[in-house]
Amino acid sequence: MPSFPAMLLVMVAAAVACRVGGFLMMAWLPASPRLEAALRATPLSVMAGITALALAGGQVADALALGGVVVLTVITRNDVMSAIAGVGIVAGLRWAGL
Questions:
Q1: pTM value?
Q2: Which of 3, 17, 65, 77 could bridge to 90 as Cys pair (CB 3.0-4.6 Å)?
Q3: What does the domain layout of the chain look like in residue ranges?
């Protein structure tokens, strides 16, 4: 199994490649309403993929935290703060033994 520093280095390289590649691609692609809608939906789709993996594990705390994030997002309309609150919710639930 690879060491943590090696895995971290690979993840950093992948993140930098995605950022640079996205920057270069956006210089060539014309802006359109369809492209802007796709870019706005990307963070939500990434979060959905992450939460789907957590829910597939069958953890009750993860499911409750996801429900809390959905409710907070609807109420506050701030997905970043809701995601941060979700981390707090799941941490609190796991600390409580759930």
A1: 0.53
A2: 65
A3: 1-30, 39-98
